[in-house]
Write a structure and sequence with these properties.
Shape: elongated
Largest sheet: 7 strands, antiparallel
Strand content: over 45%
Radius of gyration: 18 Å
Helix content: 10-25%
Number of helices: 1
Structural class: alpha+beta
Length: 144
């Protein structure tokens, strides 16, 4: 490998690391494109996730977040096998003066949609399979 190629790879690696650290930190706003397949490879999710600080919890410095999912898609990659593609969410929801943990929230099934949210934190999206006619999520893999 030539020296210039090595320098380019090291530079690209440093930029990628800085982006990951920036997203994991306490940034006040971010837009993230995502794409992930379920562990089985039968489902694929993609889209854009945006979030920003929308306020703080009264009496604390804890931040509340609002944002959106744009073009959030769940695509069945193996049609006719009895499974469907699901984009599922997990997050913390601020309601009635307390955080409430939400898991396995089905947001998109075999389609595309966009929506906004508010008063959430720790939002995660998952690519999952689900047998048609059931509610149990299978082979879920986090997009970030």
């Amino acid at each position: 490998m030539t020296t210039s190629v090595k320098r380019t790879l090291v530079g690209a690696s440093a930029v990628a690391s800085a982006l990951v650290i920036g997203l994991a930190g306490t940034a006040s706003a971010a837009t993230v494109g995502f794409n992930q397949t379920s562990a089985s490879g039968k489902a694929e999710i993609s889209g854009t996730y945006e979030y920003h600080v929308s306020g703080t919890i009264p009496g604390t410095n804890e931040k509340l977040y609002a944002g959106s999912f744009q073009g959030a898609t769940a695509k069945d990659k193996v049609a006719g096998d009895g499974h469907e593609a699901v984009l599922a969410l997990a997050y913390q929801d601020w309601k009635d003066g307390a955080w409430h943990k939400v898991t396995n929230h089905v947001a998109v099934v075999n389609s595309t949609r966009s929506w906004t949210f508010k008063n959430k934190k720790d939002v995660k999206a998952y690519a999952c399979d689900r047998k048609v006619g059931t509610t149990k999520l299978l082979n879920c893999r986090a997009a970030w």
